[in-house]
Amino acid sequence: MSMASMRDLLNNLARDYAIAWSSGDPEAVASFFAKDGHITINRGDPIKGRAAIADMASGFYSEFPDLEVRCDMMRWAGTHAIFVWTLEGHHAKTGNRVVTRGWEEWELDAEHKVQSSLGWFDSDDHQRQIDG
To answer: pTM for the whole thing?
Structure first.
């Protein structure tokens, strides 16, 4: 695959992943992961498999019914990519608007599915915004 083709493929992947997160459909988010893929957020326990990843996404939708995720930047080197994002929404219980920025470091498989993701964001700042 040419570098231009790979760039287009990964930019489209990042765009579509952000759209999936903004859709409110946890299965759409999980579909970007390999069947045995996993995500680890802020050094927490790995969330393994599409069903568990869909459950994790459902939790975000419960907290932020109007969740929107934007792709701010995408970089890659071979099968390793970085998806830089902004999450925005109103917290379901407090009503407070939250804007959180972070990134995911991806290892992609041969089908360009996420095999592993290490996600990072400032959880203290995120919680401060929720609390107001």
So the answer is: 0.94
